[in-house]
Amino acid sequence: MSTTDAGAYAEIDHVRRLRRVARVARLMDTAVRIPGTGISFGGDSIVGLIPGVGDAGAAVVSLWIVNEARRLGMPQHKIAKMLANLGIDVAVGTVPLVGDVFDVFFKANRKNLAIILEHFDEDGLIDERGDIRPMKDITPKR
User: Fold this and answer.
1) Mean pLDDT (whole number) for 80-85
2) pTM, whole model, 2 decimals?
């Protein structure tokens, strides 16, 4: 495998990982839209309804997003900002009723995704609704 091919495959892997993070962030924060309201929510809001373990389970998934950003090479100060978003989400999310409503409106995973996409200059990866755009063909040409 040539150096050019290795670089192309690294780019493919990078985009796939970003898309995976985008899918998980959408699933956790905006997977379900309430028609006519513009309000959306996801798994974080739903599992957060389960006392105790729900918020902890959602936090584990959110930590995966932060870890994936770390593995992609995000700088420590941006990782710290992402952890702060997650900390706010978990801290307020554990308060009964208030936390459940807060989870619908404070979308920590989407905020963290925005930090990642902005860092890698990949803002075009998702559309204005937050859905993942179709992947462009980046297959190496032989």
Assistant:
1) 98
2) 0.84
